[in-house]
Amino acid sequence: MELSVGLAAVAAGAAMAVAGWRAYSGRWRRWLAYGGLVPGIRSYPGLGLLYGGIGFMLAPLAAWAAETGAPDAVTAAVLLPALAGILVSLLSIVWLPRFMRPAWVRTAEHEEPLRLQQKGRR
Q1: Transmembrane segments in this chain: where (predicted)?
Q2: Which domain holds residue 66?
Q3: Number of domains present in the structure of the chain
Q4: What is the pLDDT of residues 37-86, one digit of tens each?
């Protein structure tokens, strides 16, 4: 892998991971207001940024390990978390398991139907 491509992937991954960390910590909440791609199913793209960012930061390391002739076990140990992170990031565009959502998201989702019911009664 060319060095500039690897550095670009690491930089993009770092930016994604920081945004995802801010989403998990509750400092960035605006993304929660957007609906999902599938009607009736909530998506969590903000939370998926953390996993995608980690995956993008690990991918150049896996490519470098493969190019330098590192043992296959080492390459696989870096490549599998990178692929898993990217796949979870893609999955979060459509859905994310409940155990992967932070407590503040579960609380916000629990309070949202109550607010909608109260608006409908007035």
Answers
A1: 6-24, 44-66, 78-96
A2: 3-121
A3: 1
A4: 777 778 888 899 999 999 999 999 999 999 999 999 999 999 999 999 99
